[in-house]
Amino acid sequence: MKPSLLRPLCLAVAALTLGACAIGPDYQRPASAESLQFKQAAGWKAAAPADTQLRGNWWELYGDGELNQLIERLNANNQSLASAEAQYRQARALARGARAAFFPTIGLDTGVTRAGQGGGDSTIGTTGGVSVSGSNAAQVSKTYDASLGVSWEVDVWGKLRRQLEADSASLQASAADLAAVRLSQQSELVQSYLQLRVLDEQKRLLDETVAAYKQAFRIAENQYQAGIVPRSDVTQALTQLKSTEADAVDLEYQRAQLEHALAVLVGVAPSEFELAAREQVPQLPAVPLSLPSALLERRPDIAAAERRVIAANAQIGVAKAAYYPDLTLSASGGYRSGSLDEWISLPNRFWSIGPQFALNLFDGGLIRSQVEQAEASYDQTVADYRLTVLQGFREVEDYLVQLAVLEREAVVQQEGLDAARESLRLILNQYKAGTVEFTDVVSVQTSALSSERTRLTLQGNRLTASVQLVAALGGGWDGVTEPIEPTE
Length: 488
Description:
Number of domains: 2
Order of helices and strands: HHHEEEEHHHHEEHH
CATH architecture of the largest domain: Up-down Bundle
Largest sheet: 4 strands, antiparallel
CATH superfamily of the largest domain: Outer membrane efflux proteins (OEP)
CATH class of the largest domain: Mainly Alpha
Low-confidence stretches: 1-19, 43-53, 122-132, 481-488
Number of helices: 9
Shape: elongated
Mean pLDDT: 81
Number of strands: 6
C-alpha cells in the first residue's frame, strides 16, 4: 500500500481509539425529594385480590362494559392523542437522524461545464459566414465530470454520541409525554362518564320525587275540596312540585354537556353521539397504592421530566466538544474529460484522499457562551424534574385525603338520610291524619330530597376522586418508551 494512502488509514484508527471516551459529564439521576410512605395513607386499605392491581386497562376497575368501549374509541380516534403521537414520530425521526451521523456520506456527482475565456476585436467575419479567431479570440471549452465522493466525520471527542444520547432521551421524553396525554384524556373521559351516570341517578330520583309530590298535591287538593285544609296547602304543594320539575329539566342540560364532552373525547361530532340513560352507577373500586418510591417510575410526566434532564446533560458534552478539532476523512474519484467520446476512459480518471482537521481558533467567547447556556439549561431541567416529583407526591396526598374525608362524610350523610326518610314517612301519616300543617310536610320533604341529592353528589365526588388518584399514581403506564400506534 502506498504511504500516501496509509497515513489516512492510521489516522482513522487512532481517531477511533481516542473515540472511546466522550466529552462532557456522564448522566446521574438528580437527587429529589422522596419519602418512605404517603402521609395520608394511614388507615388506607388496599384490596388484597390480584385482579384489582393497576394494570394497563386501569378503567376496568369500575366494571363497566360501556365505559371500556368508550376508552377503546378514545384510544383510536382522540385528536389530542393523534397530535401527541405525531410529535412522538417527529422525535423518533430526529433520533434516527442523529444515528445517521455515525455513517459515511456517499455522493455521486455528474455534470457538464461550459466555460469561455478571452475575446476582443480579433474575430474576423468572412463572406462565407465563417468566423476566424485571432490570438485574442474567445475560447470556449466543455468539461465532462463524473465523480464518487465519500466523507466521514470521525467522532473523536464523542460529540456525535452525546448528540445521539440527547436525541434518544428526547425521544423517550416524547414517548412519556404521549403516555401522559393518553392518561389525561382517559381520566377525563372516565370522570365525565361517571358524572353522567350520577346525573342519570339524580334524574331518576327527581322523577320519583315528582311522582311523590304529585300524589301529595292530589291529597292536599282533595282535603281542600273537602274543606279540611286551607287553599295555601294546595299552592304550597304545587310550588314544591313545579320547583322539583324545574330541577329535573335543568339536569337535562348538564347531562347534554357531559355527553358532548364525551363525543369530543372519542373523536366524533356531538350530533353523532348518544348514550342511553341508565339507572346503575358504577361502584367505587378499591384503588391499590404503589409505594412512594415507585411513583417516580409509574408517572409518565415524572419520567418525561427526567428524560429531559438526560438530554440537557448530553447537550453539555455537545457544546464542550466545540473546543476540540473536528476530524473528517474524505475520498473522491472519477473521470474528467473535455470530450464526450473519451469521457469514461483510463487516462481521464482522477482521485483524492486525505484527512481534514478543523479547529476554531478564535470566536470571541461564542463556544463558552454556548457551554454556559447548556449548563444553565441542565440546571433548569433538574429544577423542573424535582418540582414535578414534588407535585406528584402532593397530588397523591391530596386525593388520599379527599377520598378519606368523603368516605367519612358519606357515612354521616347516610345516617342523616335514613333519619330524613323516616321523618318523611311519619310526617305524611300525620298530615293524612290531620295532626300537622302542610308546611311541616313541605319542610320535611325538602330536607329528605336534599339529603338524597347530597348522597348522590358525594357518590359522584368519590368516584371522581378515585379516578384522579389512579391518574396521580400513574394509571396503567408501564414505562415502555415505544408507544402503541393508534389504530384506525
